[in-house]
Amino acid sequence: MRFVIALALTAIIGVGCDPYAGQTETDVVIDAVTAADRVPLDVETVLGDLETVWDMIWAPDGSMWFSERAGRISRFDLAERTRTVVGEVPNVLESGEAGLMGVALHPDFPDTPMVYAVHSYDTGSGIGNRLVRMRFEDGSLGSPEVLLNGWAGRRNHDGSRIVFGSDGFLYITMGDAGNRPVSQDLSSLNGKILRLTAEGEPAPGNPFGDHIWSLGHRNPQGLVFHPNGMLYSA
């Protein structure tokens, strides 16, 4: 079985020209996956007894760091199969899908031993989310420094995936916190992808206000860079 996808590429040459002038059509043929294409997978449990793992990242030494929504950040040595809880972020509010979420290591880690995280907290009138960073020293995380707060949280639609790009800037996804119109509101950080310096300041060149790199998002929780530099969000 084969699927044919027609891709129309339209070029507008000038005012008064035929609107279909310059249009070309290219057929892209994609073979369907069949049962014969299936590859058997072996599943091996390398670590258990975890509580709502939210994020997993890889350190330069090959170890895996991960967050649990209740507030813990751990380092897992794959060679030794050992887990070390390196810290527990204080004042984390775990409620529904909210809690400790995205984590990232500074691009120059461990030479610059900073660990970044986004977590939910109790504002006194509801749920808020904020970006913090902590110094990793002597095998544990220090006290968090708040780099950015002031965007609404909720029991769901919190976004909060964070990743450093090859440009050295920190990209953060923001959910709409269940309020769809704010994703188009430039006065709100919700429903956006933000782009910050490693110090938490607005990155130069952002196209939509101080912090905003992209807008119109519902609840982006996937964020990854292709090797060609293209940013993909899911």
UniProtKB/TrEMBL annotation:
Annotated Glucose/Sorbosone dehydrogenase domain ranges read 50-233
Species the sequence originates in:
marine metagenome
One of its Pfam families is GSDH
Q: Which PANTHER family match?
A: HEDGEHOG-INTERACTING PROTEIN, HIPL1 PROTEIN
Q: What is this protein called?
A: Glucose/Sorbosone dehydrogenase domain-containing protein
List the Gene3D superfamilies hit by this protein, alphabetically: TolB, C-terminal domain (2.120.10.30)
